[in-house]
Amino acid sequence: MDSVNERRLRIVFDAIDLGNNKKALQEVEKVLKKTPNLKTGLALKALSLIRLGRERESQQIINELEKDPEDDSTLQVMTYCYRELDQLDKICKVYSDAAKKMPGNEELLTQLFMAHVRVNDYKSQQTVALQLFKAKPKNPYYFWAVMSVVLQALRGSESKDKQKAKVLLSLAQKMIDKIIKEDKIEAEQEVQLYLSILEYQEKYEDALEFLQSKVCIEKFPGAPITIKIEIYKKLKKWKELMSLSQELLQEDPDRWDYYQDYLLACFELVKDGDNSVIDLSFNFITDILKSNSKVRGPYLARIEMHKRMRNNNLDPEKLFGDYQDLLIEYFSIFGNKKCCVNDLKMFLEHLPVERRSNLASKLLQDTGISSTTLPQNKDQLQKHICSLQISRLCGSHSALSIEHLQALYSALTLHYEHSFSAFGKDLLSTDIGPSDQYSILAAHIMYDIAIKSNSSYRLIETLHFLNYLLKNSPSNFHGKLLCLQIFHILGCGMGAHKVYDSLDIKHIQLDSMGYLHCAHLPSTALASLSKPIYDQTLKFFTASYKDSLEYLAMSYKYGSFSKLQEFMDFREKLSNSLHYSMVSVEALLQEIIAFNGTNQQNYLQFQNMKIEPNEDRINYEELTDNRDLNVMLRWDPIRDENNESLYDKIKEIEKESFNQDVVLLRIRSTLLRLVASSVELIHTPYRSLNTKEQNGHSSNSSVEDGDESQTILIDTWDSHFKLIEILKYQQSSSQFLVNLLPSRLHVILQLPYNKVFSLLGKFVHNLWMSSVETKELGKALQQAFLDLKSFIETLEPVNETSNLFYYRDLQAKFIGCVEIMSLCSFVLSFCYDKCSHNQPQTVSKKKKQQSNLEVNENSKQITIKEKISLITDIMRNLKSALNSAENSLEKLKPIKVEKNLNEYLASLSITPKESNKTNNSETASVITTVNIDIHTIFDENYQQSVKELSMLIKDKLKLINVK
Amino acid sequence: MTSLRAFVCNDMFKFNGVNLDALTETYGLSFYMQYLAHWPEYFQVAVSPSGEIMGYIMGKAEGMMENWHGHVTALSVSPDYRRLGLAATLMKFLEDVSEKKRCFFVDLFVRVSNQIAINMYHQLGYIVYRTVLEYYSGDENAYDMRKALKRDVDKKSVIPLTNPVRPEDID
Q1: Which residues does the UniProt record annotate as the domain N-acetyltransferase (chain B) (predicted)?
Q2: Chain B contact set for A257 (CB, 8 A)
Q3: pLDDT tens digits for B29-79?
Q4: How many helices (H) and strands (E) does chain B have?
Q5: 3-state class percentages of chain A: helix first, strand second, coil last, to nearest 5
Q6: Integer Cα distance of A349 and A393 in angstroms
Q7: Where does residue B34 rank: exposed (0-12), middle (13-18), buried (19+ CB within 10 A)?
Q8: What is the CATH number of domain A1-85?
Q9: A921 touches chain B (CB under 8 A)
Q10: CATH number for the domain including B32?
Q11: Residue B87 falls within a domain, yes or no?
Q12: Partner A, chain B 28-67, Cβ-Cβ below 8 Å
């Protein structure tokens, strides 16, 4: 390539890098005008066309280039094209062709190797790696081959055949044995790979021996001690494990993992009949404790050993004394640290239930704070907070009456205020205040009150108080998370959104924390807020999926073989995320619901969405739960009143909520496909049954496909609901504040989704066949909309006596109804459009003949006229239901919030000081303050919802407005 | 009371208790993945006895000749696990790895306004080697802090520079 062209193409590259694809296309076309056959130029043109969404044109260019791509830079640009087009196998093909032409070319072979990595073709990887090694005998290439063999054994098609996998692993070992023998090991990654191959084969003795060999010590000096520990465990070398962990603990007496290994070994030896180790361990831990009385390690180890002795039917009391006394001692030493509660939580479960309330009151005593005294310093403050949290864990709050809970709540708010004034003065805006946890705990208690008294007013008070907390500590994310949760409980999407914004959730957090906000958005009427979050979320997933291939390539490049499988699993976990699939489906549904153009425009937009009605691309069996379910703190009792473990219960709720959401996803995805299939069918020219039979293998197979797929889809749709009926899913418990909110599935089941869309699907199908059954179905649909109308009319607005979740449910139901009607309007408008264009007086001669034929041929079919009148009748009822929804928008009026923040605080006898934090320090820039007025936010939310809903309803009315 | 282990991809689904903190940045995936792929031994996570992520450190080894050194890219501890000496534990880990890799020194960058962090690094034996002008967003300066390792016998790596440098002049 001459330098002029090179310079010009540079401009194109830069434009593409900056995402300025239009400019890239213009520039590259300029170049191609002068040198039309410049291959890199053509490849760049193809790339910019893809980025501009013009894939078809781009594909033509690529097809041409494939024949003889010539040079390396063209190949590289083509690789980008294939990656964007998701045609990864083609990359293998072009590089394989190129490598054949220039055998032994290192660069091409490397690219070819990476191309195979992207499609997980381990066998070809092995071949290419060995070719590379032959061309350039460098160690990395050799080890790429070894790793490729390992992957065949562990993840390839051979992995299912144990015998084959075994052979492959032993081959991999021999390959490295050879290198070791020739003394050619160079890098620690190579040693690591060898160790893991031995472990895969369960040759732990060999691994241990190798670990102590000269090669290993020389080349892998930083070998983590955990490797040895794991091998000892596999080999059940308990004595060795015990003395090793003993050594490690002497050096580092605060390592919990070493204590666990130590005690594991100790009790395994006991099991083997060696009881003498008990005294040994007791003395060891006691000695450590004596010389390290300031670290938590040995204290916790004592409690752990006490617990394990009891589990092994040994008597710990003689050695350690009473279990509860150990807990109290731990608290009195470490209660001034936040982590004390989490430390003790692990051990509370093993304290008999009847002793727990006793423990709670003893701990409170130990803090030295009574109803008449206040914490005098930060240590005492933290201790007090810890004792309160543990007391909740011990179940002390469950038994309290509403009045007592109310008293506790007031006390906590005052404690917060006092300690904030006393110890929170010099806080930076990035700090979490020392007294903040009072108000977090208070929020949990207020929720208990709200549930017991079934009143949302109490929760609004909590919002006020948390809001006050966030004014004092604007970066307390625990407070923000609780606000987010409460806003969603109360059905205030806008409040929730403001809090969410201040949390600055991004990248992988969109997946792990999406369930806290994004997943609830379909139940709010705030499409304007949800769309950007859906877009951001989907962008993260698609980009990560593409990028994650490059991490695999990177692992080979750096020889970090230990990470390869982890990266592969991670990639799968991301792409199988339930949240990802759910958001994809919701975003598409939302887009369809929001269509507000003419029929023609809508159809064009719909086609651009490329929905495949025939296949559900979601792999339901593989879906993963990527939620971070521990992000919100909780101190709810370890056991409930029936003495069931709350931990087990929470785990069950989490699993159940995931299962229910998978069912929800099945329903939403089928709904989307059913709507899409109906629209496609309407737009497919009809062939009468006779014609089909005559032609036998009809050339127009897509028609039959559409026909069949509609039937299958309706069956699938109905079968989901039948299954749900059998399985009888329960709404998850809302006993505690941070319990997962009930799945949207339950709202869907309360609305006539199943019936309406089953009827609609059948109606469209029969209409398309002009069958007489269309009439019956049409009547049923008319009735369904009448029913929907009366359903909307019977919805009751929220009032003072409504239960806690009422407003949220009401809103979700209302929005569900509007959604049903919007999707029906979308489909029916096409039905009408199609039929009215086929009317005999308006169609061309040819079509006229055809439609006449239809009528004459088969008297069992209905006429176009009948069709139009049927559709018009249905639309009339739909219109009336929509009108009724529009007139009922007032029903969404929220509960009244009487007080503003200051009035509320005054009722708690708190007088907030004027905050002077507004222009505080440089770090303020990293804080997004939450600025929500609880007094008005519910009304704002209502105004915005009504605005969006009413606009949506108006659009739908316009869509089905026919004479 | 800590367990230390290598950071794995799945930890990213659970590190929110650390990352929601106002001073901790959540980066794009590629940032973490690059470190995991290139310097897996330098990316460690501290886990509490009950299994929560308490904090993590990520770093790398780079530089030529006498500039071969360990670098702390990010060090974060959850606000719920502060004042337990966790940062020191994680820093010691990184220094140990760097010793084994025969590095000459360890260095790190910190906002000049982050006095708490600077004090802590001083306590751990780090000195301000130089000031980097307008290194951070908002044009805030950074301190480049260093601590010499055993291999740097004459402690040549920790003789402070007198003049500040611009970000583009950092080697």
Answers
A1: 2-150
A2: 3-5
A3: 999 999 999 999 999 999 999 899 999 999 999 999 999 999 999 999 999
A4: 4, 7
A5: 75, 0, 25
A6: 10
A7: middle
A8: 1.25.40.10
A9: yes
A10: 3.40.630.30
A11: yes
A12: 28-30, 33-34, 36-38, 40-41, 48-50, 52, 54
